[in-house]
Write a structure and sequence with these properties.
α6 runs parallel beside α7. The protein contains eleven helices and nine strands. The chain has one domain: TIM Barrel. Strands 1-9-8-7-6-5-4-3-2 form a nine-stranded parallel beta sheet. It is α/β, with parallel strands linked by helices. It is globular and about 55 Å long.
């Protein structure tokens, strides 16, 4: 995909954040991306955990930059909608590492990226200034590659990793939001926080549109939309569900000799038809 076509997709992804709430169930391979788009998704977000598991690795930068970029390339080739790539913390601590990762996923056709502010090794957070430098490098790499419209989703793990005094976490997130916005981020991703009152305060004060990670038992998309959340993803949840079916079906077949876990599967003809070029 050349930079002109990729810019069109990046602009489309950017436009999807301007009004309402963009909902993206996360994909982990080409097949899951096709199914998610066939269900009506207007864009696809990858999940690093699901991608890693699909290759027999653990999440947490268990893949190399090259392996992740190749997974993104296969997903992009399978769908016509914009794809945003979860690149974890950038596959290295330095701004130059992040820039190299941006170049790799742009070459793979990604229209957006998620970049975490926690270290891949020990989970500690970069300081706001350090992460701002890394985000600045991401934006510069996109500009140099001819795709300045790349959508940079800056993920902060303050709530997810329960960093610092609970009473000060919202202020910490807002400080980071301000720094990340100045550095060129387009969206603020705040996993680990689903309290609607807190999210309302965050949305009202953030200089960036807010992305949250929905979870079973938590607020609905409608609830999140009502407090102003602009983007909803589910992280590894869909891939967890898929691999859970594989495990439970296998256990049932091996232990009981039955196969009730498979009864709700989409039929072969219908499923196979989703992968026909005419269906895309």
């Amino acid at each position: 995909m050349d930079s002109t076509d990729l810019t069109v997709r990046a602009r489309r992804l950017r436009q999807l954040h301007e009004h309402g709430t963009l909902v993206m169930p996360n994909a982990w391979d080409a097949a899951s991306a096709v199914m998610i788009v066939s269900a009506g998704a207007e864009a696809v977000a990858t999940t690093s955990g699901g991608v890693a598991w699909s290759l027999g690795r653990a999440d947490g930068e268990g893949l190399t930059r090259t392996e992740m970029a190749e997974a993104v390339r296969r997903i992009v080739a399978a769908v016509e909608v914009p794809v945003t790539a979860d690149v974890e913390s950038g596959y290295g601590p330095e701004p130059s590492d992040v820039a190299a990762t941006i170049r790799a996923v742009l070459a793979a056709g990604a229209a957006g990226v998620n970049i975490e502010d926690s270290h891949g090794d020990d989970g500690a957070l970069f300081t706001p200034a350090q992460q701002a430098d890394r985000l600045r490098a991401a934006r510069a790499a996109a500009v140099e590659a001819g795709v300045p419209e790349l959508v940079v989703n800056a993920r902060t793990d303050v709530f997810l990793r329960q960093v610092g005094d609970p009473a000060g976490r919202l202020d910490d997130v807002l400080e980071r939001a301000a720094a990340y916005a100045k550095a060129g981020a387009d969206v603020l991703f705040v996993p680990g926080q689903l309290d609607l009152d807190v999210l309302k305060r965050l949305v009202d004060a953030s200089p960036l549109p807010v992305n949250v990670m929905a979870a079973p038992g938590g607020p609905t998309v409608g609830d999140l939309r009502a407090v102003g959340v602009r983007r909803v993803t589910v992280g590894t949840a869909v891939s967890q569900a898929a691999y859970t079916v594989a495990y439970r079906a296998a256990r049932e077949l091996l232990d009981e000799g039955t196969h009730t876990a498979l009864e709700s599967a989409i039929g072969y003809p219908e499923l196979n038809a989703r992968f026909s070029p005419r269906a895309r």
